[in-house]
Amino acid sequence: MQRDPRILFIAPGDAPDYQCDTLFHGLKSLLGENLVDICPPWYMYRPTEQNRARFPSLYGKGFTLYGLLEESPATDRTDIEAKIRARHFDLVVFGSIHRSQQYLFEVLDRYSMERIAFVDGEDETGLFRHVLGRGRYFKREIADPWMIGNDASHVLPIGFGIPRQKIVDSIPAKTRLVAHIDPRDKSTYIYGNETDYYQGYRESCFGITTKKAGWDCMRHYEILANGCFPVFLDLMDFPPSVMTHYPKHQMLWAFEYLRDRRRDADAVPNAQYLEHLNAALDGLRTRCTTEAVAQHFVARCAGAA
Question: Which end of the chain, N or C, is less packed with Cβ atoms under 10 Å?
Answer without folding.
Answer: N
